Amino acid sequence: MERRAFFRLILACTTALLIAVLAGCATMRKTEPPRTATEQLLISTAAARAAAQLQPTLPAGSKVFLDTQFYDTDQVVEPKYTIAAVRDQLLRLGAHLVADRKDADVVVELRSGAQSIDSSEFLIGIPKFSFPIPFASAVTIPEIPFFKIARRTGISKIGLVAYGTPDGEPITATGDHFGQSHLNKYNLLIFSWTRQDIYPP
Asked: Rounded to an integer, what distance in angstroms lies between the CA atom of residue 41 and that of residue 156?
């Protein structure tokens, strides 16, 4: 019985070693901060694209205060970047931004409906699995993809509404606008490639 268990252990170790040699082994530390640069780029790119779609019709030469009190900074990822992107868009449209609501002719409220990353995978092959070895610890066999797609999509949904001061008369509303970014990784046997729109060519 012990001899059989020994041979099973040798077979499992040999199989794992063969797979490692064929697939290639590497240990890569992805990031020091909580989020990788890729994750930050997915979100900030989506936010910038959503902000670029905002086209509020504001009175020419008006002094504008951007109100973010209804913008959910606790749940949204990269909130300050998004606010800065919206300020940039307002300046491009000719708004004169002021730091105090009391100095403004127009108040613009910013809201967010979503801002995060969605991930999905499609695999044709053998998923990662473990199996116990008698009188030894379990052996883990790494994933063996014949074909695999790993998709990551950054999504941002924001909108603006503007009203005059001090009467609160409605001026304009943009409705909600979406921005997206993509990073797709493909594996075909020993070949791999990436398609993305977060880095410049």
From this structure: 12
**How does pLDDT run across 115-155, given as a tens digit for each residue?**
999 999 999 988 887 877 776 677 777 878 889 999 999 99
Question: Which residues of the chain have a pLDDT value below 70?
Answer: 1-33, 75, 135-136
What global pTM score does this model have? Answer: 0.75
Q: Are 49 and 179 in contact (CB under 8 A)?
A: yes
Helix, strand, coil distribution of the chain in percent, nearest 5: 25, 40, 30
User: Pairing state of beta strands 106-126 and 63-67?
Assistant: parallel
Taking the C-alpha atoms of residue 155 and residue 39, their distance in angstroms, rounded to an integer, is 11
Q: What number of CA atoms fall less than 13 Å from residue 163's CA on the CB side?
A: 10
Tell me if 156 sits within 8 A of 115, measured CB to CB. Answer: yes
Distances (CA, A) of 19 to 23, 123, 125, 131: 6, 17, 13, 16
Enumerate domains of the chain plus CATH numbers: 2-6+37-196 (3.40.50)
Lookup: tokens for 91: 């300046």
Alpha-carbon distance of 123 to 16, in angstroms, equals 20
Rounded Cα distance, 158 and 178, in Å: 7
